[in-house]
Amino acid sequence: MSIMGMVLPVYYVTWFIRYFVVCLVIHLIGSAIISATLPHVKFIVPFIVFILFDIVMIIQSFFIQTFFTRAKLGVVIALLFFLVQYIISFISSNSDNPTLGVNTALSIIPHISYILSFETMLYAESVKTNVKFTETLNNYTISSHIVSCIINSIVYLFLTWYLDQVFPNEFGSKKHPLWCC
Question: What pTM, to 2 d.p., does this model score?
Answer without folding.
Answer: 0.83
